[in-house]
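Late entry, evening session. Most of the bench is empty. Finally got around to the prediction I had been postponing all week. Sequence below, unchanged from the version circulated by S.P.
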Amino acid sequence: MSINFNSGGAKVLDRIIEAYGFKSKVEYSNYLGTSAASLSIRYRRDLFPSDLVVKCMDETGASLQWLATGEGQFKPAEQSKEAVISDETLVKLERLASLKDKGAITEQEFNELKGQLI
């Protein structure tokens, strides 16, 4: 895999937004705690956003290959794992899903909270 650090950054930013599940660039800039104008500058410069790629990989599990090139799998293939979830955890997950369905929490908040439970 070859990464071009001097161009293609706009497409990488689009894939980062997709990985998080945000519906807009503004929603993503709000998540980052930065202005939409700052994100717009990154789009115009079109440089590879390595800092945001690393953050996205950490927070979403997205693969470097997919984020950088759009090729390969969104998430790396994982070996089969047997998960044992307690009844208490299952109830909490169901409550979180209900809050997400009602719009009380965002997809990102849901994923972060779910990750803390499992």
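Two things to note before I forget:
The longest helix spans residues 87-102.
The radius of gyration is 16 Å.
Will write this up properly tomorrow.
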